[in-house]
Specification:
- By secondary structure, the protein is mainly beta.
- The chain has a six-stranded mixed β-sheet.
- A hairpin with a 2-residue loop joins strand 10 and strand 11.
- The radius of gyration is 15 Å and the shape is globular.
- The two termini are about 20 Å apart.
- The relative contact order is 0.20.
């Protein structure tokens, strides 16, 4: 899968999913909780599913595999969903691992399947939102070859840049 990515920030790439996170330590003690100082840790769960930790912040990406897949990880402060098919989207897993108040950022096609979640955001490619003090930009994530476009069609799914 290809992602339109033109930001010169820390890149974490997993199966074509591009995600980056930059701390803002200059904000000091008044910084929102998600802008914690420290290294970014990526815990690969399966395929595109991962847990990102940065200071005290915990972000789940494409949570699938049931609650047991996240044993030993704290509950997420934020959930990002990239696409509609089962290896990226599992509403039952999301419901099991995230509180009702946990913001979920998702593409429009995902929202059409699971509905918008309170406090979350629906983003089309190129749109941005701020959640928990983190700027989130949705970037296009898609396959390049014609025979694989049915899995990741341009304009449907999102990669995310977190700053």
């Amino acid at each position: 899968m290809y992602s339109d990515f033109r930001h010169p920030v820390l890149k974490v790439t997993l199966l074509g999913f591009v995600l980056s996170l930059v701390a803002a330590p200059a904000l000091g003690a008044d910084a929102p909780a998600m802008l914690a100082v420290g290294p970014l840790t990526v815990h690969a769960v399966e395929h595109a599913t991962m847990v990102l930790t940065h200071g005290e912040a915990v972000i789940y990406v494409d949570p699938v595999g049931g609650e047991e897949a996240f044993a030993g990880h704290p509950r997420p402060d934020l959930v990002l969903v990239t696409d509609v098919h089962g290896d990226h989207l599992d509403a039952a897993t999301i419901d099991a691992v995230a509180d009702e108040a946990t913001p979920i950022v998702m593409p429009r096609a995902v929202a059409a399947r699971i509905g918008e979640r309170p406090g979350g955001a629906i983003l089309d490619n190129g749109e941005t939102v701020e959640q928990k003090g983190v700027a989130i930009e949705a970037i296009a994530a898609y396959n390049l070859t014609e025979e694989r476009q049915r899995f990741h069609a341009k304009g449907r799914g999102n990669g995310y840049v977190l700053t």
